[in-house]
Amino acid sequence: MEHPYLFLTSVFGLFGLEEWAAHHPHVTYMWLAMVILIFFGWLAGKSVSLVPETAQNVFEVLISGMEEFVVSITGEEGRKSYPLLISLFLFILVGNLMGLVPSLYPPTASVNTNLALALIAVGWSHVVGIWSHGFKYIKHFLGPVPLMIPLFLPIELIAHTARVMSLTFRLFGNMMGHELVVLILLMLGGMFLAPLPVMAMGVFVALVQAFVFFLLSTMYIAGAIEEAH
Amino acid sequence: MKKETGKNLRELGYFASLGISVALSIFIGLGVGLWLDKKFDTNPVLMFVGLGLGIVAGFSNIIRAGKKGKNY
């Protein structure tokens, strides 16, 4: 289903790129999410002081609270992966919440964005595994007995591909579904504010899905750090 | 955040993602089998091999979760 009106597409139309922008709204709106995040990061880091004020206060509570949470799951070694995890969380949260603003398109409602994010998260968990175990990390994939390697290797590979897929499709399905319901209700009963209850629930869905993606990536990293079974 | 809440959330995330990973494992196994069949022209032997591996991979997830759940 096509969006009736997208703000950034008409902005890009000023530069003669309207056709490209109309076909790739997830790319342009991902840039918008990046701009929003960089702006807020700059705002918070502009005047860092020992006694925090407004913007720094909010970010300190959010970021240090999440850091303790991540470390309680992964152990002390997971602190190195924390910047990636919180970036994923904030990006997905901003992307999801953009779906609630008229004329904005949530970049997470496209399967391309989500696959990229999931590949980064799962790929990084393997990097962390090799980092903390060295070459022995491959034992995670080989099962207990050397004789069973031809059986266990494909099984583990399938299980790890399923992780990427499940991260991708969970986020994609939720955001795409929310977007579609809002659009259909807007067409059917927009005059009577029919999409309003769904949009109110959308705030909750956006938060929960961002948190689930963050939590599952944290757990994959924790699983990679753990000893081989 | 309290330590107990964090642990509970972690377990919730793990067990909630169990169902979708079983379903996806089976489909990934089937898809890889079909793709290899097309590549090597061995219809339908590798499809069944891939499907079997996918089912085993899916169920090994359940068994692993069951072992994990024994601690409660």
Question: How would you briefly describe this protein structure?
Answer:
The complex is a heterodimer of chains A (about 230) and B (about 70). By secondary structure, chain A is an all-alpha fold. Chain A is about 70% helix and about 0% strand.
Distance between the termini of chain A: 47 Å
Q: How many domains, in number, for the residues of chain A?
A: 1
- pLDDT average of chain B, as an integer? 84
Q: Strand fraction band of chain B? A: under 5%
Biggest contact: A-B, 22 and 23 residues
The helical percent of chain B reads: over 70%
Q: What is the chains' assembly state?
A: heterodimer
**Roughly how many Å is the radius of gyration of chain B?**
17 Å
Portion in strands of chain A: under 5%
The residue-averaged pLDDT of chain A reads 86
Helix-strand sequence of chain B: HHH
The low-confidence parts of chain A are none
Number of strands of chain A: 0
**Can you tell me the residue ranges of chain B where pLDDT is under 50 for at least 5 consecutive residues?**
none
| Category by helix and strand content of chain A | mainly alpha
What does this structure look like?
The complex is a heterodimer of chains A (229) and B (72). Chain A is mainly α and 229 residues long. Chain A contains eight helices and no strands. With 72 residues, chain B is mostly helical. Chain B is elongated and about 55 Å long. The mean pLDDT of chain B is 84. Classes of the chains: A mainly alpha (229), B mainly alpha (72). Chain A binds chain B through residues 65, 68-69, 72-73, 151, 154-156, 158-159, 161-163, 165-166, 169-170, 212, 215-216, 219, and chain B through 1, 3, 6-7, 9-10, 13-14, 17, 20-21, 24-25, 28-29, 32, 53-54, 56-58, 60-61.
